Structure prediction request, 355 residues.
Amino acid sequence: MILLGSTGSIGTNTLEIARRFNLNIDVLVAGRRIKELNAQIKEFSPRVVVVSEKEDVVKVQHKNVFYGQEGILEAISSSESNLVINALVGFLGLRPTLKAIECGKRVALANKESLVAGGAFIDTSKIQPIDSEHFGLWYLLNGSRETQQMIITASGGAFRDWDLDKLKNASLEDALKHPNWSMGQKITIDSASMVNKMFELLEARWLFGEGEYDAVIETKSLIHALIDFKDGSTTAHFAHADMKLPISYAIMGSVEEQILKPIDLVKIASLEFREITAQRYPIWEIKDDLLKNPKKGVVVNAANEAAIELFIKGESSFLDISKNIIKAYHKFDTQVQSLDEVFDLDKEVRAYVKA
Prediction:
């Protein structure tokens, strides 16, 4: 397989599955964690390695090293592997997704931004979702019953229990204190603002088609998806929060042995659900309109990435992230008609937010 983002959490979990089932790694793509990358190279012996920066090429212990986005695209094009695991973070992941599909490859997708920004122009029949929420919906959809609504769950992020009047003073350090697990910086901030869950709803819309979609907070992160059927019944997907299960299905298609330990409901004893409100998560104000106008995902994604940069630099507050996104969302009331327009609009929105 081709693994994009090998040193992140999705990447390392993917390599655990490769190790367990003796799967071949043709290409490893990483950022700047060169020590971890070199250890992966030693164990998995990839044909090609790609890093983000040219200056890091000499540090990589491999004879065939590319760099930058062009290096990623070249590695995808030249590989005979039929599977690309895209675990890159941000808008950077869109072109590799497009290139993989153009080359006739399957994409196991953990890069949310590919579908959020470019979903209208992506053949989703070539996509197998890795996010636990979309995997949960896919898992539950086996059968012919007509659905009423698809629901995904959220942890609620770092600020789910904060007094609302304190949010205006929330710091970067506060935003990174996720209540359930440790993740990368951007996705943890997205979780705190609830942008991450809005992106996942938009992904679900592209993956599973038009319909009713919503999200609720489930504080223990043990239920990842629910489906309300038109007959009045509801099914839920329970699993421990471990990405190795959806990764296994994405790579192998079916799984015939235990990947995770089953949930022990007696030990859990209780579950708590909460409504996601715009009072605590202001971005929720545009959720319904975005799902009706999914091509505007490129605006939300670009504004979010630019706003997070400002927040990390200390040039804006946490609440300004949502304010900047909503402002850009209403400013750029447009429907992209091509991939070229997606990339052009992305640049325009970023410049607007940073101005």
The domain at 2-129 is CATH 3.40.50.720 (Rossmann fold). Residues 97 and 328 are 26 Å apart (CA to CA).
